[in-house]
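Anyone up for a design puzzle?
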């Protein structure tokens, strides 16, 4: 086992899912996004824990992510959130993935391949109400729903949209989000007026779960909340979720340096006094962003120590002071849930980014270690 490892607290993941489900109206389904290797936490193990905690759907961002889960034995419905290329259509059908559809051309292509393969394929119609990414115009939704209904090998299982600013409490963003929901409601009604059941309606991401109960519809898709972080600083107190990932390493070397000695590339930090430097075997190739230094610190024992000099590809250095008690092989925690102190949210603030980028960025060369009842039942 490598010194640097990501500890995944599955008990926290299950706790977070429980908190979210408590907020939902009775009968509302839960879709757990496990795209990007479950935001860096490990898609397969998270998928199993989520399903056992009551998730109805999983969501991925690519056809291959869905195939990987199917080949590992996952049988729950898997919604593919990004648009595939035509060559992937047979794979979608073969592995029983549920694609989003946004236009007539793809609906026709999908229906033709499904017919050739003798399969009936569930689809979700995606409506663009203001994200301006993928999706049909709200006014086209009823027409496309009719086209899906006319394809004998397709089934309109759901209708979705995505909210662009639901994590903001700014008045203009609240008005924008409510406008998106109003457009979505009208599109759903127009589909019903054509005598077509829109299926499972879903729109709510983490931000909407926090502050738009009317956006629950038939299913919600919270992402970052499940992994233990609020969707924004505006909503930091909305649901008391617990971070799921902890990143730790160990001290592999300690050396004394004299005042005036520079540390790491480009000599960006020079020791102001005689001190000791501890080297940690973790760097930007592991996902520890180079821009986190200066400013970042790590916890060793019950104290935090600053990372000094440039973070290297595979290592970084910590100033442990002129009279250190730190020992070689001691554990150093980069971030994690309480009582670790700093979390991925704190590092995100330091790097002017979001917790998503911190956890997603932890490279696969960093081993994942799973803790909790779910891990013991694996």
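Challenge accepted. My sequence:
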């Amino acid at each position: 086992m490598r010194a640097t490892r990501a500890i995944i607290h599955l008990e926290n993941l299950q706790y977070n899912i429980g908190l979210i489900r408590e907020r939902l109206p009775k009968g509302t389904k839960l879709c757990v996004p496990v795209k990007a290797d479950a935001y860096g936490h490990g898609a397969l193990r998270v998928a199993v824990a989520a399903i056992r905690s009551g998730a109805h759907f999983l969501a991925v961002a690519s056809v291959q992510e869905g195939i990987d889960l199917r080949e590992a034995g996952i049988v729950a419905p898997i919604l593919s959130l990004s648009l595939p290329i035509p060559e992937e259509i047979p794979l979608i059908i073969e592995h029983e993935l549920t694609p989003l559809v946004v236009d007539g051309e793809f609906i026709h292509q999908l229906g033709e391949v499904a017919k050739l393969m003798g399969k009936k394929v569930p689809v979700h119609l995606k409506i663009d109400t203001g994200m301006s990414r993928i999706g049909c115009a709200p006014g086209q939704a009823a027409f496309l729903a009719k086209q899906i209904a006319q394809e004998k090998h397709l089934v309109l299982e759901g209708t979705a949209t995505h909210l662009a600013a639901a994590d903001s409490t700014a008045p203009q963003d609240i008005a924008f989000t409510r406008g998106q929901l109003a457009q979505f409601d009208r599109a759903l009604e127009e589909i019903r007026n054509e005598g077509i059941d829109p299926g499972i309606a879903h729109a709510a991401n983490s931000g909407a779960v926090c502050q738009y109960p009317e956006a629950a519809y038939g299913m919600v898709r919270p992402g970052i909340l499940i992994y233990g972080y609020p969707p924004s600083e505006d909503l930091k107190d909305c649901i008391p979720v617990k971070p799921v990932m902890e990143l730790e390493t160990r001290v592999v070397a300690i050396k004394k340096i004299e005042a005036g000695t520079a540390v790491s590339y480009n000599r960006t930090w020079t020791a102001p006094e005689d001190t000791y430097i501890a080297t940690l075997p973790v760097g930007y190739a592991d996902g520890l962003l180079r821009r986190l230094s200066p400013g970042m610190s790590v916890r060793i024992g019950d104290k935090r120590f600053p990372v000094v000099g440039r973070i290297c590809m595979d290592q970084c250095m910590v100033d442990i002071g002129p009279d250190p008690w730190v020992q070689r092989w001691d554990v150093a925690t980069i971030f994690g849930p309480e009582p670790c102190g700093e979390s991925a949210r704190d590092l995100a603030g330091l790097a002017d980014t979001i917790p998503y980028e911190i956890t997603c960025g932890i490279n696969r060369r960093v081993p994942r270690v799973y803790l909790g009842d779910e891990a013991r039942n694996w």
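A detail worth pointing out: The mean pLDDT is 96.
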